[in-house]
């Protein structure tokens, strides 16, 4: 359907976005000596992928043969063959029999009349012999782009050779344009040049987040997220189309207003205009009406006055402009770009006529109001009122992004002296945009209003939008607070809003719980005096959340006050509302079943309302609940969903990365957990968010601990300890890092510090009644005692801790305790196994832990030590002694690393110190000590 549009001609590493899995599979195939063909639509990035792979593997080949076919030259026989072999044929021509040499020379130079019909066998054998001769000198890489334009003679000759190369080191790396699978019907002609076992890899469209990343890498950083969403929709995820749209927007003097199309550049219009020019005038008008409609159908086109819609859409379908609609009677464009180019090409009067027709045809009142607005020019109170009603209806339906668009259209048609005025409508649209996750659009609207508003209420409302739009980066809008306070004057209703935001600033920027609680309480009192229920409820909820994190005894009472009727429906399910505060209180109090029910109901409601930021928060909360319950697979799915939504909307990316890291470390991939934890730390540090920084460092410490890097875990978790002491965080159930730090300290031999961490956390957990934390701390203390040789006490303490965790429903912690219990029992030389730990980890789908337990289960059974060994090891530090004991048991360095949660390099370094202290030279000497022998 789309004509050829050349992709960039040079390697561009910055264009390789979202292709990691694709490249990984292709690399694996190439590393095995196989061939690869990448395929996909025009502009999808085939050539970029091809050049990336070719650049990586060119250094491994002695000979690289390249060709890039074009449509205009595809009728010329042997042209691709000349590109491939023209410069190397002379190097091996003396190794070819004369008939083959002559036939090949004639085909490559065109000086003879060589044809496949006349010299077919000689030419086929000549190409095969040439490739064999080149392969005998070293690996050969054939790189062929735009395989669909390969001339048929070259394709036949290459295919003949490819089928007969066998195990010779000749790899083919090709790209071909396809609209379906390359081996499907009608797609096989160009594949005859490839070996039969070639891997086919489809280059798929980019996601919205990947399009945003690509645009950012190319310098298009000033685009709002709503604009990026529209670029993604219009481009269909095609990177070349997205870049062209981004370039057009960057060059446009004014961005399009809501309801206006993106500026489609000439380079992209040319892809479809030639087909549009083949349409009849009536069919083109019908398609314009379809492009203006949100969900066009044949019945809608009929109602809009297009009486012959069936015939005209069939005409467009024959030209490839429309695609078959499999799910109903809808009219679907073959690519979103077709619709965009058609709409952009139409004149303003034509567009208004299309919208006017749809304003009477659409059955949905929201759609009718939108089309009427786009068909009307200038201020019109009736149109503005209708749009305001439509925006309210969209808000009630859970479509706040639609409400924001309609609100801006309403402001455009509202007379300056009307009530409500244009700026009031704009501010409502900004608040709708916030709800929908369009923080950049909301901020831009608010800044625009602040440029001319004089009413204190309008100005404070706009300042609140600016602060809300900053999200976790609230430090970046510090200068806003004095201006907002000045605009609020002595009005309690306006001051309540400002002090509510000051409470958040105290928490996020200063990390000061006491100040946050005081500001929130002050805001609640001001709101109550002014009769502003919504602000009062939000302030009470923040006060409750802060008191919960502080371990303050008033937290339950404050939650009850915040939940008291009458409730504001939107605040009730808001991520900063009383429901969220109660959820946090339930989770920290080990009431996991109630917490799950609460957060599930909240998530269902915010999805119904289209509250994107709240959805991101509640997905994280539900993931946290499932993780603590030991449902690691479910937690991982939820956390990944939260991260996808966060990256798509630009909301809470650091917090979602942190929660996903925790889920990956427990139920997924440890390397991915480490990468996500580092990302979360970068976000928190960049935002100046001390509260989330401690959580992000906690995730990093846990990921390092699970990865076997105990020293790295200690380093990260010590920073958490310092941060939380400075922030005066007293509740150990907030981050739950204390047990991991203590266990990591045991692994590195710091037993006294481990006990200090346990004692400090236990005192607070006892005061607050954090039962699961007490059990986890008991597990850590048991490991300290085991390291000191108090094995019987350690077994009793671990057995009790496991039973308590099982009753509380903390499945993963129960499994970890069973694993620790097996370790200690084996050290006590009693009959024991890891079967219970393996069973529990498998039930939790805790894959990293399961792998560790399974490795430990097949490790050699320890042998009883001779009486002389303990005395000989007395000079060693705790970790050194434990490593030496495991060597005596016959464990390898890797097995020791896995059992002690340290790296293999740490084991090797520890053994070096052991040899020096004991005056021995090798592992054999340690084994001799175990047998009671002296070493020389």
TrEMBL record:
HTH luxR-type domain: residues covered: 869-934
Keyword field: ATP-binding, Nucleotide-binding
GO CC, alphabetical: cytoplasm
Record bears the keyword Glycoprotein: no
InterPro entries assigned to the protein according to its UniProt record, in alphabetical order: AAA+_ATPase, AAA_16, P-loop_NTPase, Sig_transdc_resp-reg_C-effctor, TPR-like_helical_dom_sf, Tscrpt_reg_LuxR_C, WH-like_DNA-bd_sf
A single GO BP: regulation of DNA-templated transcription
Pfam families: AAA_16, GerE
Gene3D superfamilies membership: P-loop containing nucleotide triphosphate hydrolases, Tetratricopeptide repeat domain, Winged helix-like DNA-binding domain superfamily/Winged helix DNA-binding domain
Signal sequence coordinates: none
GO molecular function: adenylate cyclase activity; ATP binding; DNA binding
UniProt-recorded name of the protein: Transcriptional regulator
